[in-house]
Amino acid sequence: MPRSMQLPKERIATSTPECQAGVLVVRRHHLLVRCSHWLNVPILLGLILSGVSIYWASPIYQHKPDPLTGNFDTLAGVGIWICAHVPGLHQYGSPPDWVYNHMSLGPGMLAVALRLHWLCAYLFMLNSLVFVMGLAMGGGWHSLLPRRTDLRDALKMFRYYIGLPLAKLTRRTWLHPRFNTKYNALQRVAYCSVPVAGLLSVFTGWAIHKPMQLYWLTAIFGGYDKARIWHFWLMWVFILFVVPHVILVLADGWDTLRSMIVGWSTRVKRSEVIAHEQ
Amino acid sequence: MNNEEKANSLEPKDIPSTGTGSKLEATKLPEAGPKDTNPAAPIATETPQSVEAIKQPVDPDESPSRSVDHEPRTDEAASFVAAKQEMAELPEAGPGDANPSVPMAMEKPEAVEAIEQQVDADGSPSSSVEPAPRTDEAVPPVAVEPLFVKKHQSFFDEQPLHVIERAPRVLRYRTRREVLVFGIGAVATAAGAGFLLPQNTLSRLGMRRDISSPGKEWLLNKALRIDDDVAEALYLRNRMVPTYTKSQITPLKNNYNGATPDPSYIPEWRLTLDGLASGLSVSLNIRNLLASFRVHEQITRLVCVEGWSAIAWWAGLRFDDLLSAYPPMSQAKWARLESSVNLGPRGNPDPYFVSLDLSTARHPQTLLATHLNGKPLTVEHGAPLRLLVPVKLGLKNIKAVTRITYTKDEPADYWAKRGYSRYDGI
């Protein structure tokens, strides 16, 4: 008797399919969502690199000029500190430029950085439209909507991730919180807030790009200087999202990474089983 | 859609053993029929239309894998379908039939059309239903059980999973193909992105070769032009920029790009107008200007391309008034403003010049400013007369204007030649 004919509940609940008959898969990501997801990688990289180069021309965070170095830019100060304290960097040519040399196109490149920033910004807006279309056509937006229980459940997930390495080391069982949705609450909080951050980045970007014609938009963010601060920290939202995002996807395994390439996943098990047990 | 109609339309009478298999390959039918073991059980060999079936609210007594309709089925429609199904399937009931109440789907995995065929599979069987033991081993079948979603799904609720079945071979093929396409795309994007990076950055990354090319410049200039067109489309001549109160005034630094000119030019300063309708060249001194034009005041923000900005209290004559008093030639669409006293970084003469579209020049808040914070302009801020155009970036706000030339075609611009935008509307 083929294995697949035996209790499907057990089979599906305990294993990924290895039966001859076929593999059970679920659709996970619409083609347009996948395309825009991956296109975001070079676009956001371009926006951040050129954005920090633009930041260099007039840093938001400044202090009184340092009597020794004459430096007033906090980010340049970070570079000076790094070069003074990190072994092997003591001979670095221009310490104030260290951050800009490693996190941007480079210092002193405002014109070219602006051109690249506009190019990437328009591509980002177009790509966002592709993303929204993919969400609408694939119905994926359902899975991104926040739920009332999300905050509590997200904290549970956060605790799980924080405790997981220790539990592995001490070989204690560390149970994954249950959920019966496509994403767990922490994922949903993240995957819902990143598009919101994208939207806010676009709006704050326009607010500082056209502060006269779109003065009302600038006013929404508290004026021109505050809109720049918004825009700057929204960049950090992306950076702070991407780092754990990549780590967790790699930790989660090939199926999750593959699903963003091919669109389907062989993880058909969790949600329904848990849904029925509850 | 009417449920009954849909059930009808999806139940071709010439396919005996399948309820919804309107797309089932004909070659498959003779095999599927006799091997069927559940006379009363619906056997679903799925069509793509039926993929969503299991997500729909379905009466648990019915055979959910047959519910191709998206709406909950009415009782009449359900019994109609059940009756039809029984008629069709009874003659083929096999002896090995063990469990007449199990919904089941069959699929031949070796079918060539595997890519096209999809089977609803679902991992959460209702506890009331037991899967049928099978005796026939000739065909590896797949049992799929429906998920009984009893709760009504609201529009915002998460959609249940679309569980489908694929042959492993197909999955391997598709994975290979799509990962390959992805890899090619990634390499192409990386190459394209590297191509777009500025030469300075590439050199810093260790790339020695100069890969600047006309294509790269074209693309980046194109993005810049699109952005300029957007800025031009956003501009409205009667849209005023925000004004501030005196308490909101912030310090304005001397942002002369090069050295600050020596103030000795000021006593002999004259403003020359060219490209006028009269065909003449007009030369005015600051006393003429202040005597013949009304002085307007405004407290506006000056925004620099670098990102900083300053709120300052300006006074001066409207550019629009100057245009009315000395009308430009009729075809003129642009003004070229020049400062011959501008200096380069080492104090060398470096005339500064900007282009300004006449539509922006006619904006009521575009001033030829003579005063800053209630006092005549100092040399740092472009004495005795500078352009103040708050709807443009600071770099268009040329200091110590000595000549204005009206032209038909867009004139050159100091910063546009250095890679910045030409329109600079904000």
Report what the structure shows:
The complex is a heterodimer of chains A (278) and B (426). Residues 1-19 and 271-278 of chain A have low confidence and may be disordered. Chain A has helices at residues 8-14, 31-57, 74-85, 98-103, 110-138, 141-144, 150-169, 185-209, 215-220, 224-252, 254-262, 270-277, and strands at 23-27, 264-265. Chain A has twelve helices and two strands. The longest helix of chain A is centred in the middle third of the chain and has 29 residues, at 110-138. Chain A is 65% helix and 3% strand. Chain A is an all-alpha fold. Chain A has one domain (3-65, 109-277): Fumarate Reductase Cytochrome B subunit. Chain A has a two-stranded antiparallel sheet with strand order 1-2. With 426 residues, chain B is an alpha+beta fold. Chain B folds into three domains: 1-166, no CATH class; 172-231, no CATH class; 241-418, Sulfite Oxidase, Chain A, domain 2 (Alpha-Beta Complex). Chain B contains nine helices and 13 strands. Chain B has helices at residues 3-9, 29-35, 75-89, 168-196, 199-204, 214-234, 286-292, 319-325, 358-361, and strands spanning 43-44, 104-105, 163-166, 271-274, 282-284, 295-303, 309-318, 334-339, 352-357, 367-372, 375-376, 386-388, 403-407. In chain B, strand 6 (295-303) and strand 7 (309-318) form a beta hairpin. The longest helix of chain B has 29 residues, at 168-196. Residues 1-150 of chain B have low confidence and may be disordered. At the A-B interface, helix 1, strand 1, helix 2, helix 5 and helix 10 of A face strand 3, helix 4, helix 5 and helix 6 of B.
Write the topology of this structure.
The complex is a heterodimer of chains A (278) and B (426).
Chain A: H1 8-14, E1 23-27, H2 31-57, H3 74-85, H4 98-103, H5 110-138, H6 141-144, H7 150-169, H8 185-209, H9 215-220, H10 224-252, H11 254-262, E2 264-265, H12 270-277
Antiparallel strand pairs in A: 1-2
Chain B: H1 3-9, H2 29-35, E1 43-44, H3 75-89, E2 104-105, E3 163-166, H4 168-196, H5 199-204, H6 214-234, E4 271-274, E5 282-284, H7 286-292, E6 295-303, E7 309-318, H8 319-325, E8 334-339, E9 352-357, H9 358-361, E10 367-372, E11 375-376, E12 386-388, E13 403-407
Parallel strand pairs in B: 1-2, 4-13
Antiparallel strand pairs in B: 4-5, 6-7, 7-10, 8-9, 8-13, 10-11, 10-12
